[in-house]
Amino acid sequence: MNKRYTLPTFETAQLPVVPAATRKNNYERGIAPGDLVYITEGEKKGTVTSVFHYNPSNDAVLVANVTEKRITPKTTWVENQNSHYVDYPSYLPMSKVKLAGKDKDDEGKVSYVVADEIVLKDKYYDDRYKRWLPKRFVKHHSSIEIPWPNPPSAFEDDALSTQEPTVFEKTYELQTIAKAPVPKAALNQLRNPYSKHKKRVLSELQARRLNSPEMPLSVEQKIYLAKQASKPKKTYTNLSEEIKDFIGDKMAQHINSIDNPAMLAHLEALSRAKVPDFEKTIQNIEDESK
């Protein structure tokens, strides 16, 4: 259906979202505000227009003279707007535009060069953007370069701006544990040597604040503690030689019946493992036998 006959709406067509791992900024994509592009699809097909903004999330550009009729809520009205029905800027996918360059001959005649594809290479430092940028060439025509446009607005220094040479001045020192940040002789000037926090002795009030109060026991807790106290003390006795021989014979018979080498290696590793509870029990037995 032709867009000119469709009714305006609050909703807009959602462009596909580019995965975060594959997104590129406008410099990596070879596009910048102020560039000229040639529209290859839609109502404005065949038009050369300028770029206002590049959106890396959708790989789309906002260009001049490409709008859609929309109804805007009053909360989003701008200054001097007096109608809900407005022409709203619309994004174009990069697949629907091609980078263009303007050329002027000796007679002043203006012509445009439209690049089906571009190649980014030979980085250089662009003082206008204050960054390294690749040069843009028409693919298969390395002699045709499309220069980057001038930035939309040049930055002007004001009273609060820092001069460029001052930015590169080192005004800090690297902190390291090998060198104290404050001279030892200046510590007494920064700290109060007679502060109460430097005393080794605590007052009674400070001690009470540091130690939690003893909470009274409930009836259930008293009953539980009484039962635990009435139980006979657990005693540990060492195994007799007869029991040790019996357990050793049973273990030997079981191990000799295993043919799987992987199981034997597993049992060998288990025999070398230390069990904390077992070692604690052996220690208790040795302590009681003394």
Automatic annotation (TrEMBL):
One Pfam family this sequence matches: Ribosomal_uL24m-like
Record-linked Gene3D superfamilies: 2.30.30.30
Superkingdom of the organism of origin: Eukaryota
Protein name per its UniProtKB record: Mitochondrial ribosomal large subunit protein
